[in-house]
Amino acid sequence: MSNISLKRFIAAFIARNREFLRDRTAVSWNIVMPVLIVMGFAFAFTTDSSDLFKVGLYEGKVQSKPQLQHFLDTDHIQFIEISDLQTAITKVERHQLDMLLDLKRSRYWINQTSSEGYILERMLGNDGGALKKQTVSGDAIRYVDWLAPGVFGMNIMFASLFGVGYSIVRYRKNGVLKRLRATPLTALEFLTAQVVSRLWLILLVTTLVYAGTNYIVGFRMYGSYLDLFLVLVAGTMCLISLGLIIAARMSSEEAANGILNLITIPMMILSGVWFSLEGSSTLAQKFALLLPLTHFNDAARAIMLDGATLVDVSGNLFTLIGMTLVCMAAAAYMFRWE
Amino acid sequence: MPLLLEARDLQKHYGEVKAVNGVSLPIKEGTCFGLLGPNGAGKTTTVEMMEGILTPTSGQVLYRGEPLGTRFKEEAGIMFQSTALQDHITVQEILNLFQNLYVNCRPQAEVIEQCALEDFLNRDSKKLSGGQRQRLLLAISLINDPQVLFLDEPTTGLDPQSRRNFWDLVHTIKTQKKTVILTTHYMEEAYELCDEIAIMDHGQVIASGSPYGLLKEHFSHSVLSLPATEVPKDISSSLNLTMHRFKDKIEIFSDDINSTLQLLMQNQIPLDHLQIRSHTLEDLFLELTGRQLRA
Known about the structure:
The complex is a heterodimer of chains A (338) and B (295).
Chain A: H1 6-21, H2 24-44, E1 53-58, H3 69-72, E2 77-82, H4 85-93, E3 99-102, E4 107-111, H5 115-124, E5 132-136, H6 143-174, H7 176-181, H8 187-217, H9 225-247, H10 253-270, H11 282-288, H12 292-306, H13 314-334
Parallel strand pairs in A: 1-2, 1-3, 4-5
Antiparallel strand pairs in A: 3-4
Helix pairs in contact in A: 1-8, 2-6, 2-8, 6-8, 6-9, 6-10, 6-12, 8-9, 9-12, 9-13, 12-13
Chain B: E1 3-14, E2 17-28, E3 32-36, H1 43-50, E4 58-63, E5 66-67, H2 70-75, E6 76-79, H3 91-99, H4 108-114, H5 130-142, E7 148-152, H6 160-175, E8 179-184, H7 187-193, E9 196-201, E10 204-209, H8 211-218, E11 222-227, H9 235-239, E12 242-246, E13 249-254, H10 257-266, E14 275-277, H11 281-289
Parallel strand pairs in B: 3-8, 3-9, 6-7, 7-8
Antiparallel strand pairs in B: 1-2, 1-4, 4-5, 9-10, 11-13, 11-14, 12-13
C-alpha cells in the first residue's frame, strides 16, 4: 500500500457521508428506531408495578433455617442465589432486589423507601424474628434507565455492522469497488474513509437520540458525559472494525446478510440489551464476555447508573480497544477489492 | 511508434477453464486498438489484466516498459463494461470525487463540455438515460487526462443514435493523440474507430492487424446478395459461382462484378433486389472460425 493521501481520503469520506445522509430511509431508521424503543419502554413501565418480588439469598441453604420454609415457599417471589454480597446490597439500594437474605449470618436487608421491601418484611413476619434487620436507602432504577444504554448499543451495533459491512459488500458486488480500484485510491485510504465516515455519523446520531430521549424521559446519569462519550467511541470503533472483517472479501449480499444476522442476534440476546444475564448459565455469561456489545453495555451502564469512572470500566474499555485492534488488523490483512 | 502498453503471453485460468490462453498484444502509442470477439471470447478478462484489475495466472503487462504501478494508475483512464456508482450522488459530485483521486487532472469544464454533461450535472446518477450514463462514465475515465484510455464494450445496449454520438466522442479523443484500447463485439464499431485490431476466440488471438489489411489479406472478392426466392436452387453448379445461403438471401462471391452480373442476366435472374457490398469484419470472423460472430 502506498502512502495515504489526505486529498483522496477526504474525497472518499465526503462521498460516503453524502450517500448516507441522502438515504432518507437509512437515516430515519437509525434515529427513529431507538427513540421508539426507548419511549415505548418508558411508557410501558412507568408504573413500576409488578406482582413479582425478587429476594436474594446469600450464602445460605434453605434447610439451615427450617422456620423460614413457609416464607421460602411463597408463590410469586423469585429467590435468586447471590455470591457477591456488596453487589447484592447495591441492587437493594437500587430496588433491583426487593430483599436480601443472609441466612448464614441471620440477617436481611430491605430498602426503607421500597414498598415491595416493606411488604416482604411483613410477609416474613414472625418467621424472620431470628434475623437481624439491615436497612439501606436509594432511588429505584427504572427499567428504562437500565434499558437505554442497551438500546443505544444495539443501534450502534446495527449501524456499524450493516453500515460498513453490508455497504462494502454491496460496493463489491455492483462494481463500485472495481471502479475505485482503477484509480490511485489505496485500500487503506478507502477503508479509513469508510470507518471515519461511519464513526462520526454514528456519534452524531447517537448523541442526538440520547439528547432527544433524555429530554423527554430524563435518564439517570451519575457519571461523566465525557467518559460516556469515550466509551461510545471505543464501542463504535470495535463494532465497525468487526463489520470490516465481514466486508473484507465477501461479494454476496445474501451471504453477508446471513453472517451479519449470525453476529447481531447473539449480541442482541446475550449482551444485556433487554435483560440482565444474571441468573443465566455460567456458559452463557462467559460467552457474552466475548461479544463487544456486552462490554459497551456494561461500561455505559456503569457510568450512567453507578457513576463509574474510566478507571472503573477500564477492563471493558481495554477489551474493546483490544478487539478493535485485532479486527482492524484482520480486516486489513483479508481485504480484497475483488 | 514506441509501444505504450504491452501484454506478454497472458494467461488466466479459473480451475480447468482457460479464459485467456497465451495472449500477447503490443499497443503502439497514439493508436486506437480494438479487441474483438464474441461474448465469452476472453476480451474483458484480457483487458482487465491489462488494466491491472485482474492478476494474470501467468504472463506480464508492461506500461512504458515497466510493470504496472502508480504511474500507470495516474495515467490510465478506464471505462468498464458495467459500473455502478455510489448512490444518491449527483453527476457533478461524482466528477468532483474522481477528480480528487488523481494528482493531475484536466479542467472539469473541458470534460463536461466534451462529454456534453451540462444539462444533467445536478441530476442523481441513478436517474440518467443509457446514453447519458455512458457519457458520464467516459467523462470519469477522461478526468485525469489519461495517456491510455480503456473502453470495454462502451456502446453495448445503446440505441443507434447514441452509439453514433459516442463514436464521435471517441473520434475527438483520437485527435488528441490518446492511445485507446477498445473491446467490442460490434464489428462496425471496430472498423469505424480502430487503427489496429486483434480478433479473439476461445481465449486466444486468432488474427491481428489493421482492419483494412486483414480484409484485404483474407478476401479479394465482393459479395452480391439476392433474395433466395429469386435464385433457382441448382444454379450454383451450372453457373460455376461460389455462393451460399445466408438467412433468406443467397450471397454470391465475385472477383469480377461485371461478368457475374452478365451471367445472372443471361440466366434471367431478376436483379431488382440486388445488393452489392464489400466484405466486413463479420465475414472475416465467419471465415476464421466458421461461426457467426453473435451466435
